[in-house]
Specification:
Elements: E1 3-4, E2 11-14, E3 17-20, E4 31-34, E5 39-40, E6 43-44, E7 79-86, E8 90-101, E9 128-132, E10 135-136, E11 139-142, E12 155-159, E13 162-164, E14 167-175, E15 181-189, E16 196-198, E17 207-214, E18 224-231, E19 241-248, E20 256-257, E21 265-266, E22 273-281, E23 287-295
Parallel strand pairs: 1-15
Antiparallel strand pairs: 2-3, 4-15, 5-6, 5-7, 7-14, 7-16, 8-12, 8-13, 8-15, 9-10, 9-14, 11-12, 17-18, 18-21, 19-20, 19-22, 22-23
Length: about 300
């Protein structure tokens, strides 16, 4: 599994500069982002001592040393999502990751090493995926030490220059192919005159309560209307995006997608099994998909 852990040390060397985070941000402007009270598998991790979810060191006084976000959960899709807000654009920022190899890390896999941003990671043998504001980025400097059995043989890798924007910036770290690493913390290298603060983001997907089919037992040639009832913790119901698809004999011989008309209605032309696939997306981009099967 991919662990995200925190280290409470107050200095980190980047190039010729030693960061000092004893007062929160370094005098150079660098921001240390803690991961332990972050978001893993969609569930906010609240600091036990403070009761607050935060990534900023000056709001987190201790570190217990472990938050697993890798391929260990029931859905094998655990990832860490963090966000911070900046007062201005930064054309060439860098992000530093301090990490340690765990016992099951694949020796033939590497950290992302692309020099230019990419829209996907197809064909890459990466240990983990590293996304900033929806783009994949790689690392230019640093090494990942071999596992010494302690899970804390830390090394620091430094990204290629990447753009950060005024407003909210989102960083996602996600394990690839069962690789396992302990991630300790992020450092965001930005100018000291740019204000930065942690941003709480919505990572909870909508709840789809009902996928309706009317009439309940339709006949071929009869108009069928489909309805969806969904709710979300942040997005108003009328702001949710609802996508509906209907297939005849889904994923089997003769499968065909049905054409939907006004109000998500359609007319089945033959008897058989129909599959409704509904995807509801909130304003933060979180999505839930539900499937209902009915017979005509």
């Amino acid at each position: 599994c991919l662990f995200v852990t925190l280290m409470c040390g107050q200095s980190l060397v980047y190039a010729e500069h030693t960061h000092d985070f004893s007062s929160g941000r370094c005098s150079c402007g660098a921001l240390k982002i803690e991961a332990e009270t972050g978001v893993a598998d969609g569930t906010p991790q609240i600091n036990a001592s403070t009761g607050v979810a935060s990534f900023l060191e000056n709001e987190l006084y201790t570190a217990s040393g472990g938050l697993c976000i890798g391929y260990w959960g029931a859905n094998d899709d655990n990832k860490l999502t963090i966000a911070f807000s900046l007062s201005a654009d930064v054309a060439e920022a860098r992000i530093e990751l301090t990490l340690a190899e765990s016992v099951k890390a694949h020796p033939d896999a590497t950290a992302p090493d692309i020099a230019e941003p990419a829209d996907d990671y197809s064909g890459q043998n990466w240990t983990f995926k590293f996304r900033v504001n929806g783009k994949y980025y790689g690392f230019e400097q640093g090494d990942i030490p071999a596992n010494d059995g302690s899970y804390e043989n830390w090394g620091t890798i430094v990204s290629y220059p990447l753009p950060l924007k005024q407003g909210t910036n989102t960083v996602i770290v996600e394990a690839c192919g069962g690789n396992q690493y302990n991630f300790d913390y992020f450092v965001v290298d930005i100018p000291s005159d740019v204000d930065a603060e942690y941003t709480e983001i919505d990572t909870t997907a909508p709840t789809v309560d009902i996928v309706q089919v009317a009439p309940y037992k339709p006949y071929a040639g009869e108009t069928v209307r489909l309805g969806v009832t969904a709710t979300d913790n942040e997005t108003a119901t009328d702001k949710l995006t609802v996508a509906v698809k209907v297939y005849y004999n889904y994923k089997k011989s003769g499968s065909k997608m049905c054409q939907l008309g006004e109000g998500n209605s359609f007319v089945p032309t033959k008897a058989g099994k129909y599959t409704v696939i509904v995807t509801v997306t909130d304003e933060a981009g979180n999505a839930t998909t539900r499937t209902r099967i009915f017979n005509v």
